[in-house]
Amino acid sequence: MRNKEVPLKIEVVTRDEENDFILHDPKEILAVLRDIAARRSRVALYYNEDNSMVLTLLLAVDETGLWVDAAASPIDNRHIERSRRIVFVSTHNQAKVQWVSTETTQGLFQNMPAFFLPLPRKLLRLQRRNYYRLLNSEPDALKCYIHAHPHPARQRHEMTVLDLSIGGVALVCVANDVQLEVGKRYTDCEIDLPGIGSIHPVIEVRSLFEVTSRSGEVSRRAGCEFYQPDSDTVMKLQRYVAQMQQQLAQKQRTE
To answer: Are strands 58-62 and 105-109 parallel, antiparallel or unpaired?
Structure first.
């Protein structure tokens, strides 16, 4: 049975959550990172003040540090090496794993371009149970419609929903579409939940970043939070999540 993929987005935690989910023991950190490398789990590498991201892999991990596969673009690699802060996000046994590095050296691993970084002193391992995400894939992905301009000149923009949770939504932004702004709230939005109905949430953009796939393709994504959703919106989201989880479970049982 396949497990549901965890979105590789930067997680913001409170101080109380840090006490519960931060690993400090070097042996525990080493064990988690070695397992990620052995399983060849995807790793998101955020740089440029968390505004750009590339997908990569952990190549090797030991007590001195870790080797990370370089990006496909030499330009990205130069920016990564010059970054003062890099955030890595991956998964381990369906939990999100996140750590920060401030030291990056570009070199060769087994004669291939790679980055070497010291072993992190702390590592976040977080598995939230109160927010359930549903990944969407083409051609059945949900759509979010945003009216970004005031009436009467407003225009409806269609954006693809990358993932959806009770707490928010991630959107794929295409070229020449509405330019979303971090910190701005969009009050005229609509998402149709098949079999449930439409919701009209207020969304607040919390992050914007470019994603470069391992093939070199670049896209732009927006992480948005539902701002003070009303009871009807929450109820419909809960029903939709439950419905989709049930369908996924039935599908997995037949595979």
So the answer is: unpaired
Instruction: Give, for 244, the enclosing helix (H) or strand (E).
Output: helix 231-254
The domain that holds 76 is classified in CATH as: 2.30.110.10
What secondary structure letter does DSSP report for 127?
-
Residue span of the structural domain in which 144 resides: 134-254
- pTM (whole model) above 0.70: no
Sign of CA dihedral 172, 40, 134, 132: negative
DSSP category for residue 130: S
- What are the start-end ranges of the H helices in 5-102? 15-21, 26-39, 74-82
Model confidence pLDDT, tens digit, residues 20-43 = 678 888 888 998 999 999 989 899
Question: Which residues partner with 114 through β-bridges?
Answer: 69, 107
In the chain, how many H helices and how many E strands? 4, 19
